Amino acid sequence: MLAQFEHASILVLGSGTSVGVPMIGCKCKVCTSNDKRDKRLRPSVLLRLGDARVLIDTSPDFRYQALHFGIERIDAILYTHSHADHILGLDDVRPFNFMQKQEIPIFASAEAWDVIERTFRYVFDSAPTESSRPRLKPNLFEQEPFCVAGVEFQPIRMAHGRGTVHGFRFGDCAYLTDHSEIPGESIEKLRGLDVVFLDALRHNPHPTHSTVEESLRTVEFLKPRRAYFTHISHDLLHAAVEERLPAGVHMAYDGLEIPIGRADQK
Question: Is 265 among the domain residues?
Answer without folding.
Answer: no
